Amino acid sequence: MHAFIAKLLNKRPGYIYQDRFESKEEAIKHSKNLQNYGSKVYDSRAIKKLKFEERHTQGRNMIVPLTLSVLGKDKCTILDVGGGVNAIFSHLSPIQKQQCQCFVLERPEIVKRLNDKIPTEYKHNLHYIDSIDGIESIDIAYFGSSVQYIDNHETLLEKISKRSAEFVIFSESIFTSNHKDYFVLQVNMFPDVFPNQFLSEQKLTKLMSTAHYQCTYNKAVAGDFSHKTIKRDSYDCKTLVFKRI
């Protein structure tokens, strides 16, 4: 009986997000059971699922391999922002793996742990990093449902634009019709509860335009992205592709 009651108490809510805050600090302050995205427990659990060869590729993971084929370069540099344990590298074709330098930008506390697990055959092509300062140029910058978790993403985008990235891709992040960003709490990964930034599409597009990028693809993706109180017609989960002009 006690186990049954505990299961009921730990049941996930019927929505993905809740609350609304003007800043990440405010979101953290008002959450009584907040846990950090990427806690030590989360990291240890996730690293056990680390993959370098993904047999089946679909959904958002198709966009980078397809973009690479369009670029048609013999050598390419990919920046995978927040790629984690199933980085976009694992979704590239065998030939693309040989032709690319793939840098996966991650939190400092897990970079060494991930680098230590890279198989010998990929050590010259795959690198986990905690800063892009050592990268001179980028062909594709890819945010695979990650930009919403990054502090000061504007600063990172400025650094990426200075490296003349041909494409900057934001895949499966929440974009709103508001003129500014705001924060919510993501509650669908029990027991973790953490801030998620709902980005203003207008603001991001203006930022990218100033950096000489044009949006060439803008499409909503299917899925349950429900918020407890915010109306669904004011935001959507989208993939946006920006090309340098």
Which helices and strands, and how do they pair?
Layout: H1 2-9, E1 17-21, H2 24-29, H3 40-47, H4 63-71, E2 76-81, H5 94-99, E3 100-105, H6 108-115, E4 126-129, E5 140-144, H7 153-162, E6 167-176, E7 182-189, E8 192-200, H8 201-210, E9 213-220, E10 235-244
Average pLDDT confidence is: 91
User: First CA to last CA: what distance?
Assistant: 63 Å
What's the helix count?
Answer: 8
CATH class: Alpha Beta
- CATH topology description: Rossmann fold
How much of the sequence lies in strands comes to: 25-35%
Shape: globular
Runs in which pLDDT lies below 50 for 5 or more consecutive residues are 1-8
Taken in chain order, the helices and strands follow as HEHHHEHEHEEHEEEHEE
Name of the CATH superfamily? Vaccinia Virus protein VP39
Which percent bin holds the helix content?
A: 25-40%
Gyration radius from CA atoms, angstroms: 19 Å
Domain tally: 1
CATH architecture: 3-Layer(aba) Sandwich
- Count the E strands: 10
Structural class: alpha/beta
Q: Can you summarize the main beta sheet?
A: 10 strands, mixed
How do you describe this structure in short?
The protein has helices at 2-9, 24-29, 40-47, 63-71, 94-99, 108-115, 153-162, 201-210; strands at residues 17-21, 76-81, 100-105, 126-129, 140-144, 167-176, 182-189, 192-200, 213-220, 235-244. With 245 residues, the chain is of the alpha/beta class. It has one domain (17-244): Vaccinia Virus protein VP39 (Rossmann fold).
